[in-house]
């Protein structure tokens, strides 16, 4: 039972690991959190390795860069409203996630770096019925190690690339007359590439791309009807972690004020359905509940980010961000495991240069989800509760980051 983040988890993995609104965590450093993810064209520290490794070529040649920190993710309850006894709300969650970045001194025109981040994840639990009959717990943990190498082609142009090494583990449970109990882990691999061009000393143009990763999961599932365990064996499912493209531009005035605009396109349309395969044939009457492909039909999404950086004369750098983030989840395939909707994101933070080599700071981000109402008889999720319609509200996320950086 240790190798199954499986489909239902992965239906959240895809919303949680990569890009979907409230579960995605693209902000993987102090500055990125403060800027709401608008940290692709203009990156000045060790986090350049993750956000845009091509920018490593333009860091100080005489320094190595190190950054670490922790983010506390607070997930308020998702509230589902219909009529009694169908209404309910998910549990409040608090999840700490660390990050680490390192960029070495250049070797000729080459430079390398490495990051350890938690790019997404989820804990979604429902204690009320009938929600827990479909989703009692979805827990996903993801760790990514991302080494990169940049190459300075010219004084104003650099390219970079790297490997994404991902480890994930999770738990899927539902509890009712028909129940499931799954948990497991998996490894996955992908790549990323980046370009940075400086037409002038105060303008940066950036392109980054993260590849699609197919998570071909194999593991174990225990399925039961009432108190009778009817299946305890192998299962498998394949879910894509879709490709994403970032286009960014930044402009700096008098080395004091920088404004960055970032456009992100995530290619979620590869996620068409969720289909479990089982190693045996003894699931019998449970086949319609666990072996029928679940349509997802997710859509490609756009995210627009704007970030401002202000360097003050008192060793403090202030940062502000705003973003509009689309959800990939259509209303007619929404479920209790992914009650995701479009979001607006606001963020802010400060960085204090304690000494010439050492700095620290704090950042805050608020992800506000729009409520959504499902009209009766429009759902395609094979969920007899949601067939009746209802409204999802609440949710969203509050993130607080504390980080330190050292240059040597």
Q: Can you tell me about this structure?
A:
It is a single chain. The chain is mainly beta and about 400 residues long. It has a single domain, classed as Porin (Beta Barrel). The chain has helices at about 5-20, 30-35, 50, 285-290; strands spanning about 65-75, 80, 90, 95-105, 110-115, 120-125, 135-155, 155-175, 180-200, 205-210, 215-225, 230-240, 245-255, 255-265, 275, 275-280, 295, 300-310, 315-325, 345-350, 360-370, 370-375, 390-395, 395-405.
Which tags fit this structure?
single chain, 408 residues, mainly beta, Porin, 24 strands, 6% helix, elongated
Poorly predicted parts = 1-22
> Which structural class do the helices and strands define?
mainly beta
- Top-tier CATH class: Mainly Beta
How big is the Rg?
22 Å
What does the secondary structure layout of this molecule look like, with pairings?
Blueprint: H1 7-18, H2 30-34, H3 48-51, E1 65-75, E2 78-81, E3 88-89, E4 93-103, E5 110-117, E6 121-125, E7 137-154, E8 157-174, E9 178-200, E10 203-210, E11 213-225, E12 228-241, E13 244-253, E14 257-266, E15 273-274, E16 277-278, H4 287-290, E17 294-295, E18 301-311, E19 316-325, E20 343-352, E21 358-369, E22 372-374, E23 390-394, E24 397-407
Short summary of the structure?
With 408 residues, the protein is mainly β. It has helices at residues 7-18, 30-34, 48-51, 287-290, and strands spanning 65-75, 78-81, 88-89, 93-103, 110-117, 121-125, 137-154, 157-174, 178-200, 203-210, 213-225, 228-241, 244-253, 257-266, 273-274, 277-278, 294-295, 301-311, 316-325, 343-352, 358-369, 372-374, 390-394, 397-407.
